[in-house]
Amino acid sequence: MKTWTQQEIASEVTRTSGVAGDTVNKVLSVLLGALTDGLKAGKEVVWRDFGKISVSGKQGGQAQIPGADGGQALSAKGGVNASDLDKVCAAVVEVVAGKVMRHDRVTFSSHFSAALVDRKAQLVPAEATGHQGMRTIAVTKRKIELTPQPELLNALAGQNIGFEAEGKLKEQLEHARANKILLACKDPNDFFIKTIEYHFSKAGWIVEVVSTFDQAKQYLIEDPISLIIVDCVMPDADKVVEYAKTHKKTSLVPIMELLPAGREKDWFKTFRFLGNNQLNQPFEVKDMLTLGERELERSTEEQAVFEQEVYFRFPTEDRWIDRANEIAARLFADSGLNEGQQVQMCTAFRESCSNAAQHGKLAARAITASFLG
Q1: What Cα–Cα distance (Å) separates residue 114 from each residue in 89, 121, 147, 162, 172?
Q2: With bands split at pLDDT 50, 70 and 90, how would you rate the model's confidence at 119?
Q3: Beta carbons of 168 and 93 less than 8 angstroms apart
């Protein structure tokens, strides 16, 4: 996730609007100054095609940017050309929307920062649905969140600001996918990987391609990833899956594993953390797209019920059973259970593994374990 400064935004506005750089900076000061003045007066500020900005709990009328007169009064007050003000105002919205919809953060010094946030799926109680005895799931929704910078916060006596998208930005939030995929592979320039990247990008996904565990970990920590695709010939493939599934922030992110042709059976002769789906090559990319859509829908619903979802499979050799017990103990400890409950769950898990190892078929003894918390 990148944070864009006001100067960087101004540079892009200069490029897209055709207005000179010095003028862009002056117009930006006028626009942001009008926003601050409106909020200090307790007004709801409506920024055209961007949204409604207001101080929490205050309703003292409404101010418009650039204004109902097309910006004539504001441009005269700020000493700028009305045409330039209109162009810059439109370009700022376009540039900021483009950044935040990619999950980047935009910061206007002394004023506010803007970022895209998710409201996670949640269970809606029966009494709220109007249907007795029924609960529904409110799916994940996205919104833009504005955070006042210290200078603006002081000017507003420490009060926070609310934001409701309007116009073009609201349309983007409602219709744009804005889902980010992490594609972990051995070679980002491989034709097969490029094909996957192309088709998912064409379908509206944001695709981030990585080739090392450290790169993948950075994205998983900093960015809101919606889907993970792991090409299992990548040397760090197992580490990527393990990290994603054993950390609560990313545990519910669906993982699609791409298994090399002819090696499906060999792949599970050791301890493996499992993704949600394994695709055996060759396969059609369109089938992969369909599966990605289905997994995204499933995962957004599960967010209302679970915080963590971990699957692993291992042979019935003692060393792999020992590792499974270690992993289970770690998961139970992280789940919030008290010490006594952890001991009970670990004991039950060990007994389950022992029973599975003794009663599995000799030709293919393997245990698949699941943890839902």
Answers
A1: 16, 22, 7, 11, 15
A2: low
A3: yes
Cα separation, 102 vs 362, whole angstroms: 50
Q: One-letter amino acid identity for 289?
A: L
pLDDT digits (tens, 9 = 90+) for 9-60: 999 999 999 999 999 999 999 999 999 998 988 889 999 988 899 887 766 7
Q: How far apart are CA 140 and CA 31, in angstroms?
A: 33
| CATH code for the domain defined by 179-306 | 3.40.50.2300
Among 52-61, 304-313, 321-330, which stretch is predicted with the lowest mean pLDDT? Answer: 304-313
Q: How would you classify residue 336: left for phi > 0, otherwise alpha for psi between -120 and 50, otherwise beta?
A: left
| Structure token digits, residue 215 | 């790169």
Outline which parts of the chain fall under CATH 3.40.50.2300: 179-306
Scored b (16 or more CB within 10 A) or e, 265-289 reads: eeebeebbbbbbbbbeeeeeeeebb
pLDDT of res. 352 = 81
170 vs 25, residue with greater confidence: 25
**228 near 240, Cβ under 8 Å?**
yes
Q: Nearest Cα to 251, choosing from 273, 280, 236?
A: 273
- Which stretch of DSSP H or E encloses residue 95? helix 82-100
In this structure, which long-range contacts are made by residues 41-46, counting pairs with CB atoms below 8 Å and at least 24 apart in sequence?
A: 46/166
pLDDT digits 0-9 by tens, 351-370: 888 877 776 554 446 667 66
| Chain segment 197-212, per-residue pLDDT in tens | 988 888 778 888 999 9
Residue ranges matching CATH 3.30.565.10 in the chain: 308-373
Q: Among 191, 231, 241, which residue's Cα sits nearest to residue 211?
A: 231
CA 287 from centre of chain: 23
Closest to 3 measured CA to CA, from 84, 136, 172, 116: 116
> Which one, of 171, 160, 165, 170, lies nearest residue 54 by Cα?
160
With the CA atoms of 182, 186, 188 and 192 taken in that order, what torsion angle do they form, in degrees rounded to the nearest 10?
-90
CA dist 235 and 5 (Å) reads 37
Supply 334's token pair: 């992280």
CATH architecture for segment(s) 308-373: 2-Layer Sandwich (3.30)
